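Suppose you are handed a protein chain with no further information: no name, no annotation, nothing but its sequence. What can you learn? This example shows the usual starting point.
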Amino acid sequence: MDIAVTDSGIGGLFVVKKLFERTRAGKILYLADNAHAPYGRLPELQLQKVMRANCARLKDLGAKTIVLACNTATAVCIDELRAEFSDVEFVGTEPAIKPAAAVCDRLTVMATPLTLAQPRFAALLEASGAKVCTPDCSHLAHLVEYGLPELKRAKAEAERILLPQSREGLGAVVIGCTHYSYLADFIAERFCRPVFDGADGVASRIARTCELRGAPHVDLILTDPEEKERYDAVVRFLFEHLTG
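A reasonable first move is to predict its three-dimensional structure. Written in structure tokens, the prediction is:
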């Protein structure tokens, strides 16, 4: 399969969902690295090792384009992966800071601690020229990973994170983790503020530059097969109305 998407768990499936909503076409190989989810809590060197192994596996399965549907993996690993797998096209995921800063001079960026620590990310923030708040979202990805479809605890945590900024005058909210993308609509409705999500741009780029074949379909690979039943339920929830 030519196009593969990977993330630490269900986060990258949101990118695939956005892609299918745009194209109504495409067979996607999705590697859910649920054995290491979420990536934001891993040491940097361990994440690099994990990503090299996962990308080698996807290449062996025929992937010619690999989408890192993860802000953390992109910030930490994409340059090294492009150098090591020079015959594979890599598409990364980055927070939509630039378009958010174009409409608002005050940003709340929701990202993992590991993403926030990367020079690549710091350069994006500096170039924005906006006043940026980066609240602690370290528990949020885990709550999303195990919270679909209701996401009650994840929504409560997102509300707890953003309420202090809301009292001070919340600007635009930038989603910096694909797990958090599942909360974008909730955040927009709850706080009545614009929400910018890099997952939309990634889906748009795949649709524009990659050849998508056949009806929408996800071939799922898990690094921890014991969670197959849970992941099958997530895939049904996300894609049945698109692939049925």
